[in-house]
Design goal:
Order of helices and strands: EEEHEHEHEHHHHEHEHH
Number of helices: 10
Number of domains: 1
Largest sheet: 8 strands, mixed
Radius of gyration: 17 Å
Distance between the termini: 27 Å
CATH topology: Rossmann fold
Strand content: 15-25%
């Protein structure tokens, strides 16, 4: 899909964020903002955002976070802190919404957030921290705590990046693939990150939430979405058989059906 760049203030400087609109002419329909996983980008969603928006007659906004895709790369000597997802949710995303006129009383209205993995965690933080910014959430394989299975799989991914063609395959999706990979990998494998925990925030969720997890997810267990429901009992859960960490790739039809029904119910 064709993308543009939006310039936003972040961390004391101006950075560019890659984005693409889907079905922007459907101004009366809900807007779904797609937030990618730890190694994702606009292009790594492939065609799923368009398929979902067409199935639900929705508008879409797909973006690459700072350090990913064609957005401003992370300088190689810049180390992300344990709060990197909180900063994306509380600083970078609101700044982008300001530039693109998204929000209450603005051109594009209050959006739904559709987040995968780290993007799902960012969506949860955003909705809990600023309830007026978000109409609803659909989160795929979100993280609310750091599990041992996540750390093992991320360490294994580091080995693949060093020893296989994974780097070359990811390079097709990022202006600076080492910036994208090591920014994510280094902080997730930092011992300090073991204390990262979203559970204290979850009781502040007010919007509709659909949390989705694959039964074969190699990066997390059902404890992640069950934890969301424990602290936010109104959250609906979808557990998918024969599905790994990426429900939109492993079970796209089932996910689309559930997402469209959920948005329709709460719109």
């Amino acid at each position: 899909m064709a993308t543009e760049l939006a310039r936003i203030p972040f961390d004391g400087r101006q950075i560019d964020i890659e984005f693409a609109w889907l079905r922007a002419e459907r101004t009366e329909r809900p807007l779904l903002v797609f937030l990618h996983e730890g190694l994702g980008s606009v292009s790594m969603w492939r065609d799923y955002p368009r398929q979902l928006c067409e199935a639900g007659d929705l508008r879409g906004l797909v973006l690459s976070r700072y350090g990913y895709g064609q957005s401003t790369p992370r300088p190689h000597d810049e180390k992300w802190g344990v709060d990197f997802m909180h900063r994306q949710a509380r600083e970078a995303l609101p700044a982008l919404f300001d530039v693109l006129e998204i929000g209450a009383g603005r051109r594009h209205g209050v959006p739904w957030l559709f987040g995968h993995s780290d993007g799902g965690s960012i969506a949860l933080i955003c909705a809990a921290s600023a309830p007026a910014m978000v109409a609803g959430l659909i989160v795929l394989a979100p993280h609310i705590v750091v599990e041992e299975v996540s750390v093992r799989s991320i360490a294994a991914t580091r080995d693949l990046y060093r020893q296989t063609d994974l780097r070359a395959r990811l390079a097709r999706h990022h202006a600076d693939v080492d910036s994208a990979f090591w920014g994510w990998n280094d902080i997730w494998l930092d011992p300090a990150f073991r204390a990262w925990d979203l559970r204290p925030l979850l009781a502040d969720l007010r919007c509709p939430v659909l949390a989705v997890q694959g039964e074969d997810d190699e990066y997390g267990t059902m404890a992640q979405i069950e934890g969301i429901h424990r602290y936010a009992p109104h959250a609906a859960l979808l557990k998918l058989a024969r599905c790994g960490h990426s429900p939109h790739r492993d079970q796209p039809e089932r996910l689309t059906e559930a997402a469209v029904a959920f948005i329709s119910t709460h719109t």
